[in-house]
Design goal:
By secondary structure, this protein is an alpha/beta fold. The chain contains 19 helices and eleven strands. It is globular and about 70 Å long.
């Protein structure tokens, strides 16, 4: 059996049945399966995940009983087969079909003939399959073509015109560069660029963050440069949190929803490792990641603790120069990294997020000194979790004024979708 396709299958099944995050499942299965071509595996896994609704639409047109009756094992193999036939020019038709049948013999016994028949029907009839009529139902057309749940498209249409939304949908299906944040405690940018290029990596300056570099090349995290703490992987928009917050040497900074710690560590680096960064999270195991990273990066000013960010810690009232609230959110801005997010249903849990975000922001406001700064950020593109939360917060606690807001968008900024709002605490309500 082909180890590449077996690894891809196991990853997709983990995402489908265990609701695993694609990046975590993929890395785990590559380690376990030891495929010969990890790039092929990644292309196949993310290709299937990015196009899942479109693939299911095609399968539904080929199977009389409909896609909803097909078991997860069979459906995963069919998705993989059709994606190879439709999108992977390097894979011959016979290989896509034969290898799918081999997978079926292992993971969907007794269904080999069914899977073989559906794939051969696709080869024969693929030009007859049409997308939904755009003039009759534009939301359905976009939902199938770009594989997004309809509620996400409707949400974005509240803020942007149809052409812009289609660009946003398309951008979410593109593979982003690897973006790193240089650790200036350990290396100068010019030296890091030279060293990476000497080792065969292609390096490009970031557009937004002063410490960002875009990298192309393999096994970046196995290099001594990474192991010695010269950089961390972090999207440019996320890096902008530390840049816009602009923490100063010797200050006390609180990051109340800190894990897994990218912003916490970027802030400590920007402070030149002088001051205090108090990083809180509700889960202890996630804080362990931050502690390990501080050692790798040579940072000793970060203190970690478990704390429920919706609760006020009275012992920290009025003691922080700057507070960061990187709130839990719907994560619609990181779809290009985690395509499974596109298939989230609009559940009561998602609808409850703005209330939780406002509670965290309100509790965190009590930690800010007069004249200090409060930052709210999310990795989503949703006005109800972003601008609306800030509006509700200012009405509730008018001693804060908005100094700067920015919404990064993948189709405009070539970053993750990310919202940042910086506020200042005033002494005088009429300031």
């Amino acid at each position: 059996m082909d180890a590449n396709r077996k690894t891809a299958y196991n990853t997709l099944i983990d995402v489908e049945t265990k609701k695993s995050y694609s990046n975590i499942a993929l890395n785990h299965q590559i380690i376990c399966g030891k495929p010969g071509n990890a790039s092929f595996v990644r292309e196949l896994v993310y290709g299937v995940l990015e196009n899942k609704m479109l693939l299911d639409y095609v399968i539904d047109s080929l199977v009389p009983s409909g896609v909803s009756k097909i078991k997860a094992s069979d459906l995963t193999i069919l998705r993989m087969g059709i994606y190879q036939l439709a999108k992977m020019d390097s894979v011959p038709e016979y290989a896509a079909v034969n290898e799918s049948v081999v997978l079926a013999k292992k993971f969907a016994r007794g269904r080999e003939n069914f899977i073989n028949g559906v794939l051969r029907s696709y080869i024969r009839d693929k030009y007859k399959i049409k997308l939904p009529d755009r003039n009759e139902d534009e939301i359905k057309y976009l939902s199938v073509k770009y594989s997004y749940e309809p509620w996400i498209i409707k949400l974005w249409l509240e803020s942007y015109d149809i052409g812009f939304v289609e660009e946003l949908l398309k951008a979410g299906n593109e593979s982003p560069d690897i973006t790193i944040r240089m650790n200036w405690l350990k290396v100068m940018k010019e030296d890091l660029v030279k060293n990476l290029e000497k080792n065969g990596y292609t390096v490009k300056e970031g557009r937004h963050s002063k410490n960002a570099l875009h990298i192309k090349g393999k096994d970046l995290l196995n290099t001594q440069f990474y192991k010695n703490g010269m950089f961390s992987v972090q999207d440019e928009a996320s890096q902008m949190v530390a840049q816009i917050l602009d923490p100063r040497h010797g200050e006390t900074i609180m990051d109340v929803c800190a894990a897994p710690g990218g912003k916490t560590l970027a802030i400590a680096e920007r402070m030149n490792n002088k001051g205090i960064v108090l990083a809180s999270d509700i889960y202890r195991r996630k804080l362990d990641i931050i502690n390990r990273e501080t050692e790798r990066l040579g940072i000793n000013i970060v203190e970690t603790r478990t704390w429920d960010a919706t609760k006020v810690d009275s012992s920290m009232a009025g003691k922080a120069d700057r507070v960061v609230v990187d709130a839990p959110c719907s994560a619609l801005g990181v779809i290009r990294r985690k395509p499974e997010i596109k298939y989230k249903k609009e559940t009561a849990e998602i609808q409850a997020l703005p209330g939780k975000q406002l509670a965290i922001l309100s509790a965190s406001a009590s930690y800010v000194k007069p004249g200090g700064k409060l930052m709210y950020c999310t990795c989503t593109i949703n006005p109800y979790e972003n601008e609306r939360v800030i509006s509700d917060f200012i009405r509730k606690i008018p001693s804060f004024i908005v100094e700067q807001t920015v919404q990064f968008l993948p189709n405009v900024d070539d970053t993750d979708g990310f919202y940042i709002c910086l506020m200042k605490k005033t002494d005088d309500l009429f300031e």
